[in-house]
Design brief:
Chain A: One of its GO terms (molecular function) is peptide transmembrane transporter activity. Chain A: Belongs to the bacterial solute-binding protein 5 family. Chain A: InterPro entries: Peptide/Ni-bd, SBP_5, SBP_5_dom. Chain A: Keywords: Signal, Transport. Chain A: This is Solute-binding protein family 5 domain-containing protein. The structure holds two protein chains of two kinds. By secondary structure, chain A is α+β, with helices and mostly antiparallel strands. In chain A, 29% of the residues lie in helices and 20% in strands. In chain A, the strands form five sheets. Chain A has a seven-stranded mixed beta sheet with strand order 8-9-10-1-11-22-12. In chain A, strands 14-21-13-20-18-19 form a six-stranded mixed beta sheet. In chain A, helix 8 packs antiparallel against helix 10 and helix 13 runs antiparallel to helix 14. By secondary structure, chain B is an all-alpha fold. Chain B has 14 helices and two strands. In chain B, strand 1 and strand 2 form a beta hairpin. In chain B, helix 1 runs antiparallel to helix 14 and helix 9 packs antiparallel against helix 10. The longest helix of chain B is centred in the middle third of the chain and has 36 residues. Classes of the chains: A alpha+beta, B mainly alpha. At the A-B interface, helix 1, strand 8, strand 10, helix 6 and helix 12 of A face helix 2, helix 3, strand 1, strand 2 and helix 5 of B.
Chain lengths: 535, 321
């Protein structure tokens, strides 16, 4: 070896170090965030931060089942007030006398973004594939009422139900997939799940898993080309990081917890608090001597201070919940509100023979009024609710031990232990109440976690889902809510608002009433195809 | 040398089989449920019948040994299976991601070797000096710091406080194409953190090796003959002092892989290591099997590479005795 070659490593290192140093310097000059400041916000571009990422983009596997999927359209869609309106259908369906046949006329001249026409075949394909047990769709139960779908020509589709199911039309917001693409591959793992093709206002440009979804406007959209040409959804699970990136100009809008959203007031940003059906609730399992006791249930229902929870935990962005239906919904039964009344609660327990012992905990027939309450570990909102509930119960003489666990830990204990759960679906009262309260669904997956068993409620639930008459349905759900006052198998705590902050250059926006799931469909961008940004 | 390579490759087969089986067994015994992971939020409203059907479709109702055997024999026929958590074929997951991981790891590794060597040499020249003490304490500090903590610290400081560098991802939020400029800025933090976690080993080893070499007779003789410090350092001390680094390069591969797992997760880097973490928490057996094999193969190759290099660099060392 000569000395020349010996010298090379050190020289090389020097060169590399210099290059690296240069790169750092130049990089720091062209920092991101500077990107938006230097050229000004692009009018036709929107970047929003969300906390949730879909598992798949295939409607056949459950994506977009509640509408607003952006890439696809359903037969029907929801407007701002959650009323149904036609999308790929030309009108709302004709429903037969017995409530078991739904006929849709389809819009003509609609094409998928690959240029192929949309026909009745695609609708039949989509529904049949979802009903197929070999399709790994975890939401198949939602189409339980559906027996079969048939096409009559290219532009008519007929759905036949197993039993009359009043809210069935609500289910037809689910997105339609192209039979000529999705039908040619494995439904569970084909390309279509990550590279979807639909009829919707946007096309997927790219999906970087765990990072973001990028969309571009579909210029040939049947509803007119969207003004926002480029739309990005950045997936940022951490609230603080999301808020920071919103402040740095990296994002135009984001979902934020109320306390972080407050900091954005009057900075060229607009804050939207979307009303929701998203409740937080404590399950009181029927199978436990304490939580299954009607007097304990009723006492807890009165002892809990819901207003305090809304003020302290939710920062005012929410409202007290007395049942699955929020107080401002037309389905809500007026008069079922319960005031916070610790004395009345204590009176119920005194009368029933639950006497306070030396340790301040009540007991009856040798049974102490004590039970564990589980919440999903890592979920701060549920933790806060659980702790507040336990401290309210303590004042009453009921001892609640709050514990955190994953669903794997919680599930085997659901029949005995209380759980801080969440849920809520705004489109129809049947959607969340049936699975929450129907006695035959006790212990079925995560349905009816409290094993609630009330024959009057069971009867009303069946009536509510089968009757095609609105007044009859309203009466049925009034019965359910009144029964929940007499025997609250769950303590409903709050309905939480979903808070969003968006750059005000997009003008005034709207929000829909939102479900428990924070899907891609929620937020002021539910109708981004209709936004008219100030240029 | 060829014989050693052949022997090692034969030896790799039982190792790979054992490691994949062990990973399957651990994943199977973990509290995570593949069906719940697959169903996500929809699983919370699904009927039990629906969930049972999913369990059968995903094939996770089969006994562990059967599943493992199916995966191994499938892989041999070129079918890597389907990833449940990614909803796409395992081969696609790997093809899409491995390039980003290799880029990140190679860059971090090169930076760690070069910077570590440079610091080690600087420290060795004046042992006990202020510079030496600074380098040594920096190395020990970095060695003790957990890498995910370093990563979060870097995000907090460079991205959140100073706003110099992006906090994660491959490209800017608003862009859908990967450009060289964006890639560079997004690479600096994750590669820098990964390099910093690997650097102490090289710095300390080089310092030791070069320092010892500087005390050896030939070096002392060279200095006595009045040769320049530079010639002494580069011609004599470095050659014998860098030998340990060669062996170290190969044997650092396992550390590099575990480092990448955490760094990719912290920085949302769309690489194969991040996918491995997701596969593990979702108990996605097919993807887990593939990533395990890849990682094990990388470790075995790294060790082989280290021994070969050492054998080539130092004729006194034989190949496997």
């Amino acid at each position: 070896m000569t000395s020349r070659t010996d010298r090379r490593p050190v020289r090389l290192a020097g060169t590399l170090a210099a290059t690296a140093a240069l790169t750092v310097v130049t990089a720091s000059c062209s920092a991101p965030g500077g990107g938006t400041e230097s050229k000004g916000p692009a009018a036709g571009t929107a970047v929003v931060g969300i906390a949730y990422e879909p598992d798949s983009l295939s409607p056949l596997l459950g994506y977009g089942k509640d509408g607003n999927s952006k890439i696809f359209d359903g037969l029907l869609t929801h407007d701002e007030k959650l009323d149904l309106k036609p999308a790929l259908a030309t009108a709302l369906p004709e429903i037969s006398e017995d409530g078991r046949t739904y006929t849709f006329q389809l819009r003509e001249g609609v094409t998928f973004t690959d240029g192929k026409p949309f026909t009745a075949r695609d609708v039949v394909f989509t529904y049949e594939t979802i009903l197929d047990p070999n399709t790994n769709n975890a939401s198949r139960t939602e189409l339980d009422a559906l027996d079969r779908v048939e096409a009559e020509g290219d532009h008519t589709v007929v759905f036949h139900l197993k039993y009359p199911y009043a809210p069935f039309a609500e289910r037809t917001v689910l997105p339609i997939a192209p039979a000529h693409i999705a039908g040619e591959q494995d439904v569970n793992s084909g390309d279509f799940t990550t590279k979807p093709v639909g009829t919707g206002p946007y096309e997927l440009v790219s999906w970087s898993k765990g990072e973001k979804l990028t969309f571009k406007a579909n210029p040939d959209y049947w509803g007119g080309a969207p003004k926002i040409k480029n739309f990005t959804m950045a997936i940022i699970k951490d609230d603080d990081v999301r808020a920071t990136r919103l402040r740095s100009g990296d994002l135009d809008g984001a979902i934020l917890p109320p306390n972080l959203a407050r900091a954005f007031k009057g900075e060229g940003d607009e804050t939207y608090a979307a009303k929701s059906f998203d409740y937080r609730v404590v399950t009181l399992p029927t199978g436990d001597k304490v939580t299954g006791d009607t007097d304990i249930r009723r006492a807890l229902d009165l002892a809990v201070d819901r207003e305090a929870m809304v003020d302290s935990i939710l920062d005012g962005a929410g409202k007290p919940a007395y049942g699955p239906v929020p107080t401002d919904s037309p389905w809500f039964t007026q008069g079922t509100e319960r005031a916070h009344d610790l004395d009345a609660a204590a009176g119920i327990l005194d009368k029933a023979g639950w006497k306070k012992g030396k340790d301040g905990v009540r007991a009856k027939d040798g049974v102490r009024a004590a039970f564990p309450l589980w919440y999903l570990s890592g979920d701060k909102l549920r933790q806060d609710h659980a702790l507040a509930y336990a401290s309210d119960a303590k004042k009453l003489g009921v001892e609640i031990e709050v514990q955190a666990g994953t669903w794997e830990v919680i599930q085997p204990r659901m029949s005995k232990d209380a759980v801080l759960a969440g849920g809520g679906s705004p489109a129809d009262p049947d959607f969340d109440q049936y699975t929450l309260l129907k006695s035959s669904l006790a212990g079925d997956g995560f349905n009816n976690m409290a094993h609630y068993d009330n024959p009057a409620v069971d009867k009303a639930l069946e009536k509510g889902r089968r009757s095609g008459d609105h007044a009859e349905r309203q009466a049925a759900y009034d019965t359910v809510q009144r029964e929940l006052v007499k025997n609250p198998g769950y303590t409903f705590l709050t309905h939480i608002d979903h808070v969003y902050v968006v750059d005000d250059r997009f003008g005034p926006l709207t929000t829909q009433v939102e479900p428990h799931d924070h899907g891609l469909a929620s937020g002021p961008w539910w109708n981004i195809e209709d936004w008219k940004p100030a240029t | 040398m060829a014989r050693m390579t052949g022997r090692r490759l034969l030896f790799a087969v039982p190792v790979l089989l054992a490691v994949t089986f062990a990973v399957f067994a651990v994943a199977d015994a973990s509290p995570f449920d593949p069906v719940k992971a697959y169903a996500g939020t929809a699983g919370l409203t699904a009927s039990q019948e629906n969930l049972d059907q999913l369990r059968a479709n995903l094939g996770v109702d089969q006994p562990l040994a059967v599943r493992w055997w199916e995966r191994i024999t499938g892989a041999l026929t070129g079918d890597l299976g389907h990833s449940a958590v990614m909803r796409q074929p395992v081969a696609d997951v790997i093809a899409e991601r491995i390039g980003w991981s290799v880029l990140l790891a190679a860059l971090a590794f090169a930076a760690a070797v070069l910077a570590g060597t440079a610091l080690g040499v600087l420290a060795a020249r004046r042992r006990g000096s202020l510079l030496d003490r600074a380098v040594t304490s920096l190395a020990y500090t970095l060695e003790a710091a957990p890498i995910f903590w370093l990563g979060l610290l870097a995000v907090w400081f460079f991205a959140l406080q100073l706003g110099w560098l992006p906090a994660g991802g491959l490209t800017d939020t608003g862009s859908s194409t990967v450009t060289a400029g964006q890639l560079t800025t997004h690479l600096i933090l994750p590669a820098g953190v990964l390099a910093a976690s690997q650097l102490p080993w090289f710095a300390l080893y080089v310092r030791q090796g070069v320092g010892d070499a500087l005390d050896e007779d030939p070096v002392r003789g060279a200095r006595a003959r009045g040769l320049s410090e530079r010639t002494v350092l580069l011609g004599h001390a470095l050659r014998s002092g860098l030998l340990p680094v060669l062996t170290l390069i190969g044997s650092r591969v396992p550390e590099l892989i575990t480092g990448a797992l955490l760094v990719e997760t912290v920085f949302s880097w769309p690489g194969i290591a991040a996918a491995t973490v997701q596969a593990a928490t979702a108990v996605d057996f097919p993807l887990l099997a593939a990533t395990t094999v890849l990682a094990t193969a990388a470790v075995l190759l790294g060790n082989l590479f280290a021994d070969l290099l050492y054998g080539l660099a130092d004729p006194r060392v034989g190949f496997d005795g």
